[in-house]
Each structure stands twice: as structure tokens, then as C-alpha cells.
From TrEMBL:
UniProt-recorded name of the protein: DUF362 domain-containing protein
Domain DUF362: 42-287
Upper taxonomic lineage: Archaea, Methanobacteriati, Methanobacteriota, Methanomada group, Methanobacteria
Domain of life: Archaea
Length: 363
């Protein structure tokens, strides 16, 4: 199997079909888990930015099915993440507010059963390690990540399919923001659009936001993957729904009961389960799907997104830029994280949809 292959299955939303398709795509993209040994420790990294339900967060069945399959093979499985600053905030003095584990339950992603780690619960110093390499030059001082990256044998990335008010998209690369300590989260956000909202979310903490003038918001996000490149085994999307405006949460801003910038949710027909062990290939295909969905975006959601996010070039890039020219992709290729896909293996996907997606990727 070529590392740059993306495996795609069309699926209905009933649970039996989903389970079977997730299992098939997982096994195909990992060559039947040929890297897994009994008692290996595997981290599943979902998208759990908030307590909002899917598709603002990862599909619950993605977590359930992958965990069950790995456990049946004899692995020790841990699900782990740290929610965004608005919902979980930590500084040198400890957790200021929120628990990622509570969001895991509230979102519908998981239950009290099974092992879940909210990275903030491990402590500011003892729970994190520092990472820096020749591939992380956008981070002059490096960044701090959960110690679980060092402790596990394997990592499986389980993002959701969504646009993002700041980054343009939140897919496989953006999902790894959840392994950062909050001081490092502040560092990369300081280079991005709408950082005043991030500083507001950090109110009450001792965290600082200093823009280093590098304009490397997206590059910093991509370079987080350098810390997991040796242990990442696959990036798997369960996309029966997608957010095609705003994101990552169900709304861009909430003031009391007032919600501003409600994410437009699309139900995919058919739903798509797709994965690749090359993170750039997986990201490229996810971008193709989002581009295609946004072609038929209704006028009102499109207009409201344009009005509220008019100053954010990252959002414009999704619609206007070829995939291989998007910052997420060309920077990831530049630092050796992977390549654009050279093969897409489809199952139960209509020919007209296959043709459109292949065209976006220029296959």
C-alpha cells in the first residue's frame, strides 16, 4: 500500500453501516494494523474543542469503533484531548475553569466508561513536555505538548469536517492544537485573526498573548504535527455531516442567549468515511470535500459568513485557492510531513462526486 493512498467509503447514517465502514477504512488505511503489538498503548485524538455535539466535535462512533477494534487486538487505548480556552482554561497556578472530561460526556462523544484523559488534569509542569526541532522554525522557542505524546506507542487522529472562523478550516492538522499547553495555544493564536477574542477567553488567567510579528498562524498549526510524525498511524474522518461556515463550535460568538455566527450544517449524501496514513493526503481530500460542499452553500449562510469574516483571508483561501497552494498543504509538504494523494480508492461513492473530488486534487 502506498502511503499517499486515501481510502473512501460512501455510507448511510445508520449505525450498522457506519460501524462496518469505519472498521473497513481503518483497517485498509493501516494495512490491517500491522504496526500494532499486544499491550501497545494507543492514543485516540478526537476533536473536542467544546461540549457541542457532532459535527462541531468528532462523530461519537469514530471513537467507539476505533477503540473497540484496537482493544480487541490487545491494545491499551486512551482517548485524550484538551478543549479550547473558552471551555477549559489552565495556567501555571492550575486549572482556572472547566474540565475536558465533562465536555467529552456533554458532547455525546463518550461516556464515563473507557479511559479518557483531559490533558489539563495532568498538571502544568508534570503533564507537559517541550518540543522543538529543525522543522518547527515558526516556533522560535518551541512549544509545549502533553506528555502523552511521549508515553504512547501509536496515535490515531480523529478530526471532524468543518470550517473555522480563524483558520479557515479545522481538519487533521488543526486537530492537534488540542495537545498544546495553554501558553503555547496563546503563542500561535497571537499571530492569527481575531486574537482579541482569544485574549478575552483567557481572562482570569496569567497567560500572555504576544504577537511575534511572524504572521505564521497556519505554519505554527501545521508544525505541531512534527511532534507526532513518528507515532501517527492514520488520520480518519467520519463525515456524515459537516460545518460549512464558521466553526469550530456551533456558533462563532455567544453572549448570554444571543448566538452570533451560527455554523451552517450540511448532511452529506452519501456520508463519507475516509482515511490515509499520510496526513497531507488526508487533509487534501478533506479540503476537497469541503470545497465541494461550499459550492452549493445557500445564499444566507454564505452572506452572513462573508460579512462577519470579511477580513479573514484564511476563510477566502478555502474557496479561491487550489488545494496544493493552500498554506496548510504546501507548508506541510515543505517540512516533510507528507504529500498530496496519488491514489484515491473509492467504494460506494457516485461517479459524479468522485470526478469532482478528483478534480479538486488534480488527479
Amino acid at each position: 500500500m502506498d502511503d499517499r493512498t486515501v481510502f473512501v467509503e460512501g455510507v448511510s447514517s445508520d449505525s450498522d453501516s457506519l460501524y462496518k465502514s469505519i472498521e473497513e477504512v481503518l483497517l485498509k488505511s493501516t494495512n490491517n494494523l500491522d504496526w500494532l503489538c499486544k499491550d501497545d498503548l494507543v492514543l485516540l485524538k478526537p476533536a473536542l474543542n467544546s461540549p457541542d455535539p457532532y459535527p462541531s466535535t468528532t462523530h461519537p462512533m469514530a471513537v467507539q469503533v476505533v477503540r473497540e477494534i484496537l482493544s480487541e487486538k490487545g491494545a491499551e487505548v486512551v482517548v485524550g484531548d484538551q478543549s479550547g480556552l473558552k471551555d477549559v482554561l489552565q495556567d501555571q497556578s492550575g486549572v482556572v475553569h472547566g474540565k475536558t472530561h465533562d465536555n467529552y460526556i456533554k458532547s455525546g462523544m463518550g461516556t464515563s466508561e473507557g479511559r479518557f484523559i483531559g490533558f489539563e488534569s495532568e498538571g502544568w509542569d508534570e503533564g507537559y513536555i517541550h518540543h522543538q526541532s529543525k522543522y518547527t522554525r515558526s516556533w522560535p522557542k518551541g512549544f509545549n505538548i502533553t506528555k502523552w505524546i511521549e508515553e504512547v506507542d501509536h496515535i490515531i487522529n480523529l478530526p471532524r469536517l468543518s470550517t473555522h472562523s480563524q483558520a479557515g478550516v479545522t481538519l487533521g492538522f488543526k486537530n492537534m492544537v488540542g495537545i498544546l499547553r495553554d501558553d503555547s495555544r496563546m503563542d500561535f493564536h497571537a499571530n492569527g485573526p481575531f486574537n482579541n477574542f482569544i485574549k478575552t477567553e483567557a481572562h482570569g488567567s496569567k497567560l500572555h498573548s504576544i504577537d511575534d510579528g511572524s504572521h505564521s498562524f497556519i505554519e505554527k498549526i501545521v508544525e505541531i504535527h512534527d511532534a507526532i510524525r513518528e507515532k501517527l498511524r492514520t488520520t480518519l474522518f467520519v463525515a456524515t455531516k459537516a460545518q460549512t461556515t464558521f466553526g469550530p463550535n456551533t456558533n462563532a460568538l455567544k453572549i448570554g442567549k444571543l448566538e452570533i455566527g451560527t455554523a451552517h450544517v450540511v448532511k452529506l449524501k452519501p456520508g463519507l468515511i475516509f482515511a490515509s496514513n499520510d496526513p497531507v493526503s488526508a487533509e487534501s481530500f478533506a479540503l476537497a470535500v469541503l470545497k465541494d460542499l461550499r459550492k452549493s452553500l445557500p445564499s444566507l449562510p454564505k452572506f452572513s459568513s462573508q460579512i462577519l469574516l470579511f477580513s479573514n483571508s484564511n476563510v477566502k483561501q478555502l474557496d479561491e485557492t487550489p488545494i496544493n497552494d493552500m498554506t496548510f498543504i504546501y507548508h506541510a509538504i515543505k517540512i516533510g510531513l507528507g504529500e498530496m494523494p496519488n491514489q484515491i480508492v473509492y467504494k460506494n461513492v457516485p461517479d459524479n462526486l468522485k470526478e469532482r473530488l478528483n478534480n479538486y486534487i488534480q488527479l
